[in-house]
Amino acid sequence: MLDAYAFIGVFFIAALVFPLVPLIAAWRLRPQRSTPIKRDTYECGLEVTGGTRVQFKVQYYMYALAFVIFDVEVVFLYPWAVAYGQLGLFALVAMSVFIIILVFGLVYEWKKGALEWA
Amino acid sequence: MNRTIVISQILVIEQAPGWLVAALNHAIIAGVLLIGGAITMMLQVWVERRLIARMQDRLGPNRVGPEGILQSIADGIKMFTKEDIIPRAADRWVHLLAPIVALAPIAMMLAVLPWGRGLVAVDLEVGVLYIAAVSSISGVGLMMAGWGSRNTFALLGAMRSIAQLIAYEIPLIIALLGIVLLTGGMSLARMPELQAGIPLFGSSIPGAPDLGLGWFIFTPVGLLGGIIFFICALAEGERTPFDIPEADSEIVAGYMTEYSGMKFAVFYIAQYLLNFALAVLSAVVFLGGWQGPGVAWLADAGLGAAASLLSLLWLLLKAWGLFMLMVVIRAAVPRLRVDQLMSFAWKYLLPLALVNVASAALWVGLTEWSSIEWGNLLPVDGLAPWQRIGVAALVTAVINLGATRWVLRINRAPAAAPVVVPA
User: Which conformational region is residue A50 in: left (phi greater than 0), alpha (psi within -120 to 50 degrees), or beta?
Assistant: First the structure.
């Protein structure tokens, strides 16, 4: 068991090296002739006007909230799913109640228009 | 794993400490997987370009090497010699770290995937959870790229991609949950082992031959889950029709706008590697992984190595088939609008995925539980296992079909108001 996580640890280091190798090799190989014009922010050939940090629709935030709710739900559902075979009818009823409460939440969001991109 | 221990014992001095030998073993396996991933990525680019070209009545790259197969290597060499342009306004460090943060987690997905019969790098008990956790870190890299570039196009692309990734992650994980319910474990290495036997009934009929075709896709739960999973995999991998974050006709290249040279290539590698990892994952969870006709016969005949080789070929065949399906979808389907994208995840896929979990729970109840849990409510108690599977398949098929029809109906657009022509 511990050996499995040791492998994940070694793999993590290898995965970090994986993008670093081409990046470092390219850093040694490529030409470096930077000019002020080259380093302008890209804007389809025009001069940049106005700020970069534009405002975003509040809708992104609404979706993020819904995501957090359902992501936490999933964290509870996975242990249940693994133990389900041994727990029997009690697990089915208990989790049905939990899911139904969450489905009510989804229906409420839906009816309130929180899932509309408008 | 024992075979690699021998390899590394040849490499190091005999008195090397145990942890060093173990670390070297791990490093060798990790290196093989990652180099394999890099080669796969180059092949993917070539296959995609040739296939798209064929569908668009062009030839595609066919000059470098036989049939143009070395095109990706030529492109790679070009990438190494391209100047790296960092905009003056950009945050240098975030700009540099973003491609690394985007690629490393995706490379880590390769660690737990089972590649063949006995060909598993590591059998993690929480494999499904690991995949879900690791793959979502990559989104941080995309946001870093968009924010660090200090470019409006890049920021718009990053916001779009985060919104898309989180919207499709939920149905993706819940679709996997249905299969976790069926198997009672999150280990990815065990999933192909449970998909032996014949379609739908698996190994439940005594005397039936082991065709290696008991794939979950042949059960109603696996079919709906597999379709949801594959659609979500398209969205997570930002394939057309879900390529809104880098819609070139709208926001240049999204979060990659300010990237050039090797940093751009690293984002590219990340995307193709993610597509391949998701194709392998779909194959492992829903299409039987390395199971296929012949694997069990070879293993029974005592030809373990041949069985492993055949199983690896089956897995690669399925994974490449799924990748080519992604390419064909790219050539055939136009890009979605952002409101369609969001409502498809939250209003179609999420309710269907939840219903599918309920179906999976019923399936387990109908096929495995005895009447002790159910009192006298369980009429299938006296039946043989394969008869119970038949009943469960019928029940879950009706539920899933009904749910699909219901979701389509409640989402139907209201009839357009009649156009009144002024007199």
Answer: left
Q: What count of CB pairs under 8 Å joins A to B?
A: 210
Would you call the peptide bond into B241 cis, given omega within 30 degrees of 0 as the criterion? yes
Give the count of beta carbons closer than 10 Å to the beta carbon of residue B6. 10
Express each pLDDT in B125-158 by its tens digit. 888 889 988 888 888 988 898 888 888 888 888 8
For A:3-62, CB contacts with B below 8 A are 3-4, 6-8, 10-12, 14-16, 18-20, 22-23, 25-27, 29-34, 36, 38-44, 52-54, 56, 59-60
Question: Considering CB atoms only, which of A25, A30, A82 is closest to B82?
Answer: A30
Q: What is the pLDDT of residues B193-243, one digit of tens each?
A: 888 878 877 777 777 777 778 888 888 888 999 999 999 999 888 887 887
Q: Which two tokens stand for residue B32?
A: 């093989």
pLDDT in tens, B151-168: 888 888 888 888 888 889
Sorted by where each begins, the domain ranges of chain A are 2-112
Q: ipTM value of the model?
A: 0.87
Name the pTM for this structure: 0.88
Contacts of B101 (CB under 8 A, 6+ apart): B137, B138, B140, B141, B144
In angstroms, rounded to a whole number, what is the distance separating the alpha carbons of residues B58 and B350?
Answer: 39
Cβ <8 Å between B104 and A16: yes
Q: Work out the burial of residue B396: count CB atoms within 10 Å of its CB; fewer than 13 is exposed, 13-18 middle, 19 or more buried.
A: buried
User: Is 3.40.50.300 the CATH number for A2-112?
Assistant: no
Nearest chain B CA: its distance from A15 CA (Å):
5
Write the pLDDT tens digit of every residue in B66-83: 888 888 888 888 888 888
